[in-house]
User: What shape does this take?
Amino acid sequence: MKTGSCLCGSIRYEIESEPTDCNYCCCSICRRLTGSAMGVYGMVRKSEFSWLSGEEVLNSYHQNTNLERFFCSNCGSFLLSVHALDSVNCYLSLGSLDSHEGIEISYQQFTDSKAPWLELDGSLESHREWPSWIHERISK
Ligand SMILES: [Zn+2]
Ligand SMILES: [Zn+2]
Assistant: This one.
């Protein structure tokens, strides 16, 4: 069981199992979304994710018809992505976790789109765009 929160602490959540497929996404969308070099995400089963508090300040941005990004309307922390075509999993913004014990990054994606000032970790599995296997899991 892990917990996490937004910056102001209004929104808290818990997950019943460890995030899997943890990754860096260096695409231009995640760069804008986070205001930083990359998005850092882990996959969590929807059935194992629950909001504990703050749902009254939870807001979401529909990036497109299928993709919804949840954030705190008080402090702006971006916490979770939900894809309508993925009925099983959601994608947690790992920086919002309270404890990072046991979290390991498996790969980095969209390395072709990275900001020029970002130095990538050469030892990580890298994908220039989506990993080829991801379409089996998510329909875009
Ligand atoms: Zn907040
Ligand atoms: Zn991205």
Notes: Residues 28-34 form the longest helix (7 residues).
